Amino acid sequence: MSAIGLIGILVAMVLFLVMVYKNCVSYWVAILCAIIVALTNELDILSALFTLGGEQSSFLQGMVDLLPTMFKVVFMGAIIGKLYTDSGAVTSIANALIRAFVEKRQGPSKITAAVIVIAVLNCLLTLGGIDGYVLTFTMVPICLAVCQQCNIPRRFIGGFMTLNCAFMVFPGSPQIYNVMGVAGAQAFAGGAGLNPAELGISSTMGMIPGVVASIIIAVLSVITMIIVSKRAVARGETFEAGTVEMPPVREGRTPHVILCILPLIVVFVLYSIVKLDVFWALLAGMILAAILFLPFLPKQDVRGNQITLLGSLRETFNHGANQYPNALMSVITPAGLAAVVTSTATFGAIIGMLSGLPINPIILAVIMTVIIVALTSSPPATLMIVIPAVLGVAMQQFAGDITAFSVPAIARTSIIAASTLETLPFNGLIVLTLGLTHCTHKQSYKYMFLNTVVYTTVGTIVAAVLFILFPGLG
To answer: How far apart are CA 378 and CA 338, in angstroms?
Structure first.
């Protein structure tokens, strides 16, 4: 292993962290860091950045490799999210939950109910297929309104926004982690000439430990946010909008809450139970949402001109489609940097060293996933690297006996582990959330860190232990 190469990778990752933390756009920072990695690892810079289809992976190739899967999730999720926002469907669900569980309560119990309502809403929208990036724009106004109504300090909104992290890795969730975990396991099966279905590879693989881990993450996160919110209010802290522009009160009708939930249910059922490709599940949800919400879409364009019913649908689709490029680039750009890192001999030596550890493949999957997520800042790319690699190591350990280990157990544990070190302070969604709420890292990040790093690590450990103690759960 080259000492200079390793130093270069570490410097590049620290630089990436610091510069994005300082509000530099990750698109150009990732390229700069990729150049540092290439220079210190004796790679041709142009080849490391722009080569397509060669033996050596490149920055551009790393982005391209993720496009087919990420496009489906982010593009469709962005349009569904915009349909829910423009029609008032999200507001309708939130208002129904608030009327049922929050409004009639007083004091500490009102805060408890408010936090649980935010968690439930996060759960519904995440499992219903709305992309996590788009969900930020959808949920921040809701959280602002709830915090104002319950007099909860604004600095806790960052923590409330991360209550969806438990459901991002929930078995069957039509989100990036699950989709890429399935893709990684299928890549192994294809390379080994095996049938993915016979190996138990699906969106719901490793169901019981995966559900248990998600519940633990959710419960710990909700309890934490309830406790810190109550303590702050008890100390006399109150809600202050500060420089944040409060969301306007929505005028006009909104869809009935039952209509609002139907598309979310359709997406989850088609993806996790019927086992359709995530594209078809999201497409079905989008079409149903468009039909159900059409009468409730704004009848004016951005300039205030009156438009027809179909014109309002066109405007919503346009705005949703305009959101997806930035969301997509925020996901696949770190994958470009990851591709350059993983193409180096230094990284190969690290993987070889880790793969040679005489430990259970499930534990190996956790260790490799956490380390590579930290080095590359790209969970999707990490899952496509780790899952096939660990499964290949397991095949060697057990002399090619595929029945001696569980593919679903290794894949599900990797999926949960990929959520642990993604949300470090420089993460795009962290920076975006803090920007929308006009809060600093000092004010809000510690709650986000607990929910998305500490508790996801606990969930990962629990899932791994369950798979190891009870192999039949895989």
So the answer is: 7
